[in-house]
Design a protein that fits this description.
The chain is mainly alpha-helical. It is built from 6 helices and 2 strands, in the order H-H-E-E-H-H-H-H.
Length: about 140
């Protein structure tokens, strides 16, 4: 391989993104397909690793792939206004707040059910009764 070029295993190690996920990100077009040497093996350079780290960090903050794609475009465009980046971040914060509310409601329901379950040798269990109550609540 040429100077600074590495195989997918080394790129995975340096970026913290698994080789499987690197191939997945290439397959969905999130990152450009790697260059290939004559033998057909993928090769990556320092810029590719930097991009993979960017993606990994964005994923660790819970950004979905579609927003990461937008963030990558903004990151690559040195003339972009930071207001576009901030708008994406604020939209993601609103989504996280909604998910937090949903998780808190789930937790509250489960806590309520757990308090009312005797947890003894008897077969009665309000937790299982609630799960078996398969009414369609519009979801």
């Amino acid at each position: 391989m040429h100077d600074g070029q590495m195989n997918i295993g080394e790129a995975a190690k340096r970026s913290g993104v698994s080789a499987r996920m690197i191939r997945h990100y290439e397959g969905i077009g999130l990152i450009p397909a790697a260059k290939r040497v004559e033998s057909g093996y993928r090769t990556y350079g320092g810029h590719d690793v930097h991009t993979l780290r960017f993606v990994r960090h964005a994923r660790s903050l819970g950004f979905p792939v579609k927003q990461i794609e937008q963030l990558l475009g903004l990151w690559r465009n040195q003339r972009r206004p930071s207001s576009k980046v901030k708008a994406l971040a604020l939209a993601h914060i609103a989504e996280l707040d909604a998910r937090i509310r949903d998780l808190e409601a789930m937790k509250h329901t489960l806590e309520h059910l757990a308090v009312h379950c005797r947890g003894d040798e008897r077969p009665e269990c309000p937790i299982l009764d609630e799960l078996a109550d398969a009414r369609d609540n519009g979801q």
